[in-house]
Specification:
By secondary structure, this protein is α/β, with parallel strands linked by helices. The protein contains 25 helices and 10 strands. It has a 6-stranded mixed β-sheet with strand order 5-6-4-3-7-10, sandwiched between helices. A two-stranded antiparallel ribbon has the order 1-2. α22 links the parallel β3 and β4.
């Protein structure tokens, strides 16, 4: 059941069947362009290069700190030849199994009409009626936890990548060490202030810069590999197995650092809808993967030659004269990596709003042509403050490494579970095949998660705290919406009964059109009843408008609207938007005009309800719904601070009338 857009409820996910089409008499707002499934030639090259600047920024900057962290004193792994080969083998096979096999080959198959990401996958499961109700609730909870952990990733990624880049100053001179944190803070503030301008104008430059970055790190690594080509033997998994046998518990704990090499793998799936599968796969196998391997092998060869270089092998690969340009390039690459996670947080928030797990927020479209490029001030400010606090609190990328891994590995494990459910329920894989794949992937994911769980007391609690807080708010908002919808239904009356009563009433009808926004297709909007109670008139034409969110990313313009003409000048209109779209009532009115519903903008009034929620001093328990007192108060606070429906639905500000009411729950 959809939610009431006139209240603090926002919108709700509901799998709908496209019904009546819309005839296009004149140009209507353009649909978001769909990335072709099988691009070729120049188009494929352009998409692949562009994907480098968004998809691979995070994983592409991991060489700044991943191998260095493996040889930190707390792990007790010295830079001996056996250990170097073992650690390198672990990194190589982590990249191969997690990124190449799991995400590139398998997870990217689970697209929701071309879109990826953990909420897109969750929408696939929600829309599948064969999934048992209780099992679905567990999977939804897992999906929300994964989404909440992604926010934690969005906080830590900008901090650790920019810190890791700035720490090159310490290699130049120990006297610059005190500048690392201040310069990181300045770079992060600039990055977040830049967000309001959008990425439309500079997005095309990200890809070429990342091409330069990957070629540069490959060249640095190749130089050392040529000095000691024997390091390439680390590609043999026997070295990783032998390392685990010989080092035992220390090798398991070390996985908490090895996982830093695969951070950013989730971006491959989350950003799939922007570029398509083929360009992402092409960029990985032909550029990103080989360049990363060459750099890691180069760092390993350097550490073999000079064990002291394990303190910062990435920057020590470069000749001293190239350090400043490399630091500058690394900083730009780190900013690009951060941009991908920040943009991802914006998209994730938009999906949460549309799927009914977040209050309405301010969504600013920064591109006239690409709908996916958005800016959310509230999220941007929260991320900026959180990143700055994290940098100040931890002070180094080494300290942040403990916090980073648990967010990434938790999301990876949840993605595996959801993927296997999709494969079994929607693709009808045999149970043995689905379970075999789940066992293989989870063995890796849970090993990484277990190693990082040991770091909870050393910073791993940060993303967990963020995830717990956000999960609590998302579930509170969803449950509060359901309870409030039930309360609104209690005080409403059936539409058929209301229309019948109009036949025997003498309510005056005045010229013009009134649009009442509602969700209950069978009931009369509460705001309409309040309007009659106070004003005692009705317009000649009354439109009952319901805005619903579907379980697909985007709805075609031809399937956008359904119109039912009722008695006494009433019209029931249902408008559908995808969970990656933003509602626009002006567009709806234009579509209605193409259906023959004529209304002059200056003679059209929009009626919205503004509920003041009053939590009772006892828990809510009714109709299978329950909510504790503290969660009711939290919901009331969230509702009070939600963006107004008039702004969210882009209503003409001088044609909106809000009628308030108090609701106890």
């Amino acid at each position: 059941m959809p939610s009431d857009p006139t209240s603090p409820l926002g919108s709700n996910a509901a799998e709908l069947t496209p019904q009546m089409g819309v005839a296009a008499a004149r140009p209507i707002p353009p649909e978001r362009p769909t990335v072709e499934a099988n691009p070729t030639g120049r188009r494929l090259a352009v998409l692949s290069i562009t994907a480098l600047g968004v998809v691979y920024g995070d994983i592409g900057t991991s060489p700044l700190y991943a191998l260095r962290e493996c040889f930190k004193p707390e792990y007790g792994i010295s830079a001996t030849p056996a250990n170097v080969y073992g650690v390198l083998s672990l990194i190589v096979w982590s990249l191969t199994l997690v990124v190449s096999v799991k995400y590139i080959v398998y997870v990217m198959r689970a697209d929701n009409h071309g879109e990826g990401g953990i909420l897109a996958m969750l929408a696939l499961i929600i829309g599948k009626t064969t999934v048992h109700k209780q099992r679905r609730a567990v999977l939804v909870a897992l999906g929300l936890v994964g989404a909440a952990l992604l926010y934690g990733d969005g906080v830590i990624t900008p901090a650790i990548t920019v810190l890791g880049a700035m720490e090159g100053l310490d290699v130049v001179s120990a006297g610059f060490r005190h500048l690392v944190v201040p310069m990181t803070l300045v770079a992060l503030v600039g990055l977040f202030l830049f967000q309001r301008l959008g990425t439309a104008k500079v997005g095309a430059t990200f890809g070429p810069i990342m091409v330069v970055w990957f070629l540069a790190i490959a060249a640095l690594g190749t130089n050392e590999v040529l000095r000691a080509p024997g390091i390439l033997l680390a590609i043999n998994p026997v070295y990783a197995i032998r390392f685990f046998i010989e080092r035992g518990d220390a090798a398991f704990v070390l996985l908490g650092a090895v996982v830093l090499a695969v951070t950013g793998a989730e971006a491959l799936y989350a950003d799939m809808g922007h570029f398509g599968k083929k360009p992402i796969r092409l960029a990985w196998f032909w550029l990103v993967f080989p360049c990363l391997l060459l750099n890691y092998f180069g760092q390993g060869a350097l550490v073999l030659r000079d064990p002291a270089a394990a303190a910062n092998p990435f920057y020590l690969l470069a000749p001293r004269v190239m350090l400043y340009p490399l630091i500058a390039l690394a900083t730009v690459a780190a900013v690009i990596a951060s941009q991908a996670l920040i943009s991802g947080a914006f998209s994730l928030t938009q999906q949460c709003v549309q799927l009914g797990y977040s209050p309405r927020v301010t969504i600013v479209h920064t591109s006239a042509r690409v709908a996916g490029q958005i800016y959310i001030p509230e999220v941007n400010s929260a991320l900026m403050v959180s990143c700055l606090l994290v940098v100040i609190g931890f002070g180094s990328s080494t300290a942040l490494g403990a916090a980073y891994g648990i967010a990434v590995t938790g999301t990876m494990a949840i993605t595996t579970v959801l993927f296997v459910v999709v494969a079994a329920s929607r693709w009808h894989w045999p149970r043995w095949r689905a379970l075999s794949l789940a066992a293989a992937f989870l063995a890796v994911d849970l090993a990484f998660l277990g190693a990082n769980a040991l770091k909870v007391g050393h910073g791993g609690w940060v993303p967990l705290a963020i995830a717990i807080g956000l999960f609590t708010m998302m579930t509170t908002w969803k449950r509060g919406r359901e309870i409030l919808r039930e309360r609104l239904t209690d005080i409403s009356i059936p539409l058929d009964t209301f229309l019948t009563s109009l036949s025997h009433s003498a309510i005056p009808r005045v010229p013009g059109t009134a649009v009442f926004m509602t969700s209950d297709a069978g009931g009369v909007p509460v705001v309409l009843l309040h309007h009659l109670k106070h004003n005692k008139v009705l317009h000649e034409k009354v439109i009952l408008l319901s805005v619903q969110t579907t379980g697909i990313p985007e709805v075609k313009n031809t399937d956008r609207l359904t119109l039912h003409r009722l008695e006494h000048g009433f019209l029931r209109v249902v408008v559908r938007y995808g969970f990656m779209e933003s509602p626009d009532v002006k567009e709806v009115m234009e579509l209605l005009r193409r259906q023959g519903v004529r209304s002059r903008p200056l003679d059209t009034s929009y009626y919205l309800g503004r509920e003041q929620l009053i939590p009772k001093h006892k828990a809510w328990k009714r109709s299978g719904l329950s909510m504790n007192i503290w969660r009711k108060r939290l919901f009331a606070v969230m509702a009070k601070n939600s963006r107004s429906a008039a702004e969210f639905f882009q209503l003409p500000p001088n044609r909106v009338i809000e009628l308030g009411t108090q609701i106890e729950f």
